[in-house]
Amino acid sequence: xxxxxxxxxxxxxxxxxxxxxxxxxxxxxxxxxxxxxxxxxxxxxxxxxxxxxxxxxxxxxxxxxxxxxxxxxxxxxxxxxxxxxxxxxxxxxxxxxxxxxxxxxx
Length: 106
Hints:
Strand order of the largest sheet: 1-5-4-2-3
Oligomer: single chain
CATH topology: Oxidized Rhodanese, domain 1
Structural class: alpha/beta
Helix content: 25-40%
Number of helices: 4
Number of strands: 5
Shape: globular
Order of helices and strands: EHEHEEHEH
Number of domains: 1
């Protein structure tokens, strides 16, 4: 699993020929506060039953609040055979600070 900070992820998304799937593993009440446009929400608490929403051939960027839950989700996906994974270090908080300063923080 690759590790990228928010700026690296933002640049990667802009430059990628095939856009990665953005998966936010935070809980719905956290998503209500702030989210990255286009990200799908699959809470870590309900991750395993929702795997059918993810394509193992598609590159996946995992997002949470600070990068810990997304790392756990990535490790779980690796155990399931997924290989095209990026964990966003610093999570949505880093995104709000470094990429989108207008985004609400919590």
